[in-house]
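Continuing the series of single-chain predictions for the mutant panel. This is the parent chain; the variants come on the following pages.
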Amino acid sequence: MDLFTTTALSILAAGFFVGVVVGLTGMGGGALMTPALIFLGVGDAATVVTADLTAAAVYKTGGAVVHAREGSPNLPLAKWLILGSVPFALLGPHLVAGLTSDEDQLDYVLKMAIGFALLLAASTYALRLYINLRRVRGGAAEADPNPPIRAVPTLLVGALGGLLVGVTSVGSGSVIMVALLMLYPGLSAVRLVGTDLVQAVPLVLAAAISNIALNGLDWDLLIPLVIGSVPGTLIGSAIAPRVPQSFIRRGIVVVLTMSGVALLDKAGWAPLGKDETHPLLIAGIGVAMIVLVPLIWGLLRRQQGLPMFGAPTVAELEGERREPAQGRPSAR
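Parent structure:
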């Protein structure tokens, strides 16, 4: 394939940009990569989801290996998540494909599903920040690197995450993470991230395999995506300590919300009108959120007895808590 066409370079640039954001924030890339590729018009929704999942399987594997070597994942917890997520990741694409045999209708259904998944991801990401804010103010739960496994809720979380990822490629780094925060408040940030990465590898692999079996794999899309995203992730990870996280993370909530609404608009969601798009509405939502998100965040901080702005920052809220030594090296 020719990597110097306009299309290939735009895919590479999108992959690089999203990779940098993933490296900076630790956020799963599907919530950003999938809508970016759809808006670029490089393929229909099914093709984009398949390529994104395949690329994610590559860069998530590297992250999982690093965390596993550091001893940060809670492997029993990851096992229960995998037991719930993998079957539904395999099943989800076939369930959606079974809804219709018409390609245009399938594209509509997928865009709708991705749009709502992005709004869910934005909501859960904001909720994650708020939970951490309350933890800091109210006193964090006692660190417990190996809590008793709550099997049924964990299986259900895995199943929901697997279904979301299998259908939309969104959810492994947002919805599952928030659920783990609520189910296992004693896990430190590094344990949560390590566990999420380890369970995400078989999850995205299963979702990728299922989507490839249904839709095939567009190598002209996948290759520049991987070439762009892998170095982007490495660069983002390297510069993360020197970049103000608060603005980036709040910005992600805004971008996810705008992307979700824009995809619903593009798909012709009835409340927005089936026959026309509404760029001014989407821009207005973005401007309103840019103004309101910092204000609402400040009010929530004040409600917890903290100054509206300043310490603890968003990055500090998501920072690692100390764990008692368990015979494993502590992650730094």
